[in-house]
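Practice problem: predict the structure.
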Amino acid sequence: MAAVLTATLDTASTPYRVVLTITGATGVTTATIVCNEPAGSRPVRGADPLVISGGGGVAFEFEAPRDVPLTWTATPNTGAPFSSATVTVPSDNKVLLLHPGSPATSVYLNGSPIVDMSYDMQSAVFEPPGRQDAVYWSTGSNSAKGTLVAWTGSFAETAALMNILKSGFPLRLLAPAAFMDSSPYLGVLSAKETRATTQAWDQTRYITAEFQVSARPISSLQLLWTYSQLNPTYATYTALAAAYAGKTYIDVAIGPA
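Answer:
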């Protein structure tokens, strides 16, 4: 039986994810899975490599760009690579600010946030004595810097957005294909909260984040829940099993059902 990589869109998850299932990988102990994005291949978090047991293994992809057809390829420690069928993760016309390490803390931004970018050049101009014209030298531009402006409508929305902006973890901006032609990782440099009006009762805030486009962060999924948080919510194994029916221990670890 040949090894198979199946990519299944899970829209019951918040945010959406793609479940990557390897079956039939007899004799394989590990496999590295990459997502084949328009900008190039990217390792799937938690599957770099993925441990294969009994010929199978499961990984979860949260970082897929929206509204574009994607495939995933698994390279086993022995044998030839094998790829999935095409899957497109819909944006639902929403902009998602994804925390790659703790997907459950990710935030959908209201409306169409403003994203401006600028590029600083690594360059210098020299004026050698005796020459009329200056000499220009450059090695190209640095990664883009920019500003993200979004609004929140409640204290809870403000807290959720500010929490991930202040997490110290690069975030991925996943937007509809018509909104942006890329899905950059953002290293947040600063975050500012501003009242939208002077009315004391108005909870609307404008959130401004300065960022620099960064490389994909290299780490595993971070555990979001501790036992002390989990136990009061699901005091018995029966309650836990009912809430997470059909899911895995990773689902339990990274966030509430």
